[in-house]
Amino acid sequence: MTTVAVIGCTHAGTFAAQSILREHPDWTVHVFERNDTLSFLSCGIALWVGDNVSDPAKMFYSSPETLGNFGATMHMRTDVLSVDVAAKTLRAKDLETGEETDYSFDKLVVTTGSKPVVPPIPGIDSDRVMLCKNWEHGQAIKRRARNAKSVVVVGAGYIGAELAEQLSLAGVKVTLVDAAERVLANNFDGAITAQVEKAFISHGVRLALDQKATAFEETEDGIAVVTDKGRYEGDFAILAIGFLPATDLLSGQVDMLPNGAIVVDEYMRASVPDVFAAGDAATVFFNPSGRYDYIPLATNAVRQGLLVGRNIEKATRAYMGTQATSAVQLYDLSLAASGLTFEGARRRCIELCQTELTENYRPDFMVSTTPVTCILTWDPVTFEVKGGQFLSKADISGAANVVSMAIQSHYTVEDLANVDFLFQPNFDKPIYYVGAVAMKAASQARKA
């Protein structure tokens, strides 16, 4: 009988364990998780802080009992201390009893996820500097935010931006700090982020951009975030500057990127036989760039986890890659994106063209309509679509899914311009705005 060890059980681990047992119900699957919960949807923390969650218990979509009913042998509150890939053994510690036990496995699945980036700067270990990653972090932020009058959020990516938005709506004085010159700089280009910054300012959020945090200093009533350009005080601070793979257990035993992400092929296989990895611990193939990359998203983790079960005995189903499709709601603005931004391509030394278009999302004869800002990036040689970004007060989130499929299918801007999109005045104009920006891009491409 084959024995599988699954280390870590959030998104990738949960779906990997289920998929393995679905494909091989007679196998023995040991799941090791250091926490007492699993499958926590951390993307809901900001919404929970802002009292937009009906019941925090619903932020878990599975449980140890559910996986146990699937047939998994669950080891909750168990910390894996070491792994010997060559010997196919691991040592784990029961965090309740302190007992350490050795286990053998035939196949290893590494779904250890990611950890928050915590740079070694003075004062960062203060209990007034909070992280935002797991259930415990969410509970702590929720408690602190209840009576807070001021907060400094360090990091203006998705997590930091959402926290700043929700806290400001709750009447908290928020300062948002980031080393980049723009909010959401890794997700959207300037034509969109400029509108988001105006929304933050109009809601009283102080933006401290283009400055790097250099120290945290406790004050009598809270914490001060010191940057290379200023000093900002709050009752507490939240650090949200990114994530790194939590893969120290496998260091030196399998191929990794410099940041520690385990390199996997299209079947989720690591560089050593019988070792698989998925989710935030692993690389993904980023279709817009045609390269392996590190993109920690729950959507990637779920799809990769599901593929572990399909491929753990033999290569059956290849990973189709990712476009890093995502969306966020900030105040009354909906933002959605897929693929490469113009600036993101430049950082990767990839030359792209960019087409922008702003027009109302539905006909002017409607009682109400509102503009949508569209940005399409495309290859200047092949004219293939490489990315799309959208912002509006209307719900334009579906546009990112359209662009995602276009990228994955290697559509040119001309192809996208000629897709059969629906027209109905409640939803769009005779020429859907995705098609409209693609038409503009196709016209530019023909003149190139």
Automatic annotation (TrEMBL):
Question: InterPro entries attached here?
Answer: FAD-bd_OxRdtase, FAD/NAD-bd_sf, FAD/NAD-binding_dom, FAD/NAD-linked_Rdtase_dimer_sf
Cofactor field: FAD
| Domain of life, per lineage | Bacteria
Where does the FAD/NAD(P)-binding domain lie?
3-305
Q: Name one GO molecular function term.
A: oxidoreductase activity
Gene3D superfamilies found in the cross-reference section: 3.30.390.30, FAD/NAD(P)-binding domain
Keyword entries, A-Z: FAD, Flavoprotein, Oxidoreductase, Redox-active center
What protein is this chain from?
A: Pyridine nucleotide-disulfide oxidoreductase
Identify the species of origin: Bifidobacterium moraviense
